[in-house]
Amino acid sequence: MFRACFVLIVFLYSLPQAFAGIFEVSGTANYRRSQINELNYQISQSVTASVSYYFMEMSALELSYTEGTSTLRIQTLSTDPFAEYINKFTLYGLDLVITLAQKESVIQPFVKVGGAHIIKSLIKKGETGSVEGPSVDPETVPSAGLGLKIKLTNTFSIKTGIDAWRTQQKGEDAKIDYAGRAGVSLLF
């Protein structure tokens, strides 16, 4: 997948100047910690990097890479054994992004639709060590999202949004995974 992304970026960058559009590089992060006490808590964190190529004034192809973890720690009493569940995930995405405002607008809402390749793993930790959880097959799934970009300058913006993916492991009902994001973007 990385090789395909690299080839696409090189191809888009090598287009003749008359046809070439604008590149946008974005980075977003998500961190959340929720705790009942020092023995029982949940931590969720992820980072996303993306490169978008605007092939029309307000339409772009966006390649993205997301990596993150979600950790849940449970221990009823301080004398009881603890259990920690760690969900690791990696996501490669390709989306068509359509901006619903003019290029000069300070506030630029957008929608996107595309696909993603998701890799997940579950690890259980306890006082006796780590154990791999149930096997989760990587899958390629449809994705969609919406967001808002606020231009601070002609080349620098704040970007927020929500993305969703429809996942379905063999023999199970479809589920919707989603993520809220906030970050910055630079136009070249």
Strand-helix topology:
Layout: H1 2-13, E1 22-37, E2 40-56, E3 59-74, E4 83-99, E5 107-126, E6 129-132, E7 139-151, E8 156-167, E9 175-187
Antiparallel strand pairs: 1-2, 1-9, 2-3, 3-4, 4-5, 5-6, 5-7, 7-8, 8-9
Description of the molecule:
The protein is 6% helix and 68% strand. Strands 1-2-3-4-5-7-8-9 form an 8-stranded antiparallel β-barrel. The chain has 188 residues and is mostly beta strands.
How is this structure best summarized?
The protein has one helix spanning 2-13; strands at residues 22-37, 40-56, 59-74, 83-99, 107-126, 129-132, 139-151, 156-167, 175-187. By secondary structure, it is mainly beta.
Query: What is the residue-averaged pLDDT?
Result: 86
pLDDT < 50 runs, ≥5 residues: 16-20
Distance between the termini: 24 Å
Strand runs, count: 9
What is the helix fraction of residues, given as a range?
under 10%
What is the chains' assembly state?
single chain
Question: H/E order of the elements?
Answer: HEEEEEEEEE
What structural category characterises the helix and strand content? mainly beta
Largest sheet: 8 strands, antiparallel, barrel
Strand order of the largest sheet: 1-2-3-4-5-7-8-9
Rg over C-alpha atoms, rounded to the nearest angstrom: 20 Å
Helix count from the secondary structure assignment: 1
The general outline is: elongated
What fraction of the residues are assigned to beta strands by DSSP? over 45%
Q: Any key phrases for this structure?
A:
elongated, mainly beta, 8-stranded antiparallel barrel, 188 residues, 68% strand
